[in-house]
Specification:
324 residues, globular
Length: 324
Amino acid sequence: MTAIDRRVSVAPMMEWTDRHDRYFLRLISRRVLLYTEMVTTGALLHGPRERLLRHHPAEHPLAFQIGGCDPAEMADCARFVEDAGYGEININVGCPSDRVQNGRFGACLMAEPETVAACVAAMRDAVDIPVTVKSRIGIDDDDSYDSLARFVRTVAEAGCETFVVHARKAILAGLSPKQNREVPPLQYDKVWRLKREFPALEIVINGGIRTLPGIEDHLAQVDGVMIGREAYQNPYFLAEVDRRFFGAEDDIPERQAVVDALLPYIEREVADGVHLNRITRHILGLFQGERGARAWRRHLSENAHLPGAGTDVVRAAAARVGQG
């Protein structure tokens, strides 16, 4: 299997990185690794599995993020993910929401490295694709480097070779998921230290990284950088990522060309019953910083939800770019 290049990736973001967003982002960047939203084992085992696993071949390279804590269920889900054609399955050990904690997965599992290790071992026995882990640097008052290193060591001994680490601890009570992305201070040095002390592991850093120089600085310390909200709110940023970190020059698309390439996809999806605003909500930031960006956003926001809305709405919005 072709090795996955994790130098730059886009974070799994609930309600954001759905299949429509991933198709759109892939029109901008051909090289960054994309992740699905987190899907729980319960949803995959008992819910609309085909819909949850659905993706377009153009989305690759693509990883699937799973949330769960039962090794047998995680192994079954890993098989579904591999059979569906994904190139990696990632275990969520970082989400701090109450709902996730009640299901005994996400960040609370940092207190149970043996459970995570058992899941990794079962999944690796079940599939050939890489099994990776996304975590925080700690939880609540258990946020020392020694605790983080113990977690990584235990899970690595079960066969996990790649750790994506959000460089903030998670506070499991008293903060919302949004606050957990902003209030706990970033501690990049702990993630950098992981790479120094576990040189054989692939260490990817996540959290608050929004610029090309910032990516470059981190790549001098670790193996990869995961971008979150910047990639969603300013998606054309990924074109510059391709140019700077993957050597792309001739095949960087212009923004209007991205719109043109998206139109056939929109036409197919709308014909299949998808409401236009389910797609256009992801593309509002395409022209960020360009003249007419506000008019683009306004036209989409005011018209994409209307009955019968289709590609004509997107074309009309794009015609407003560059006009005042």
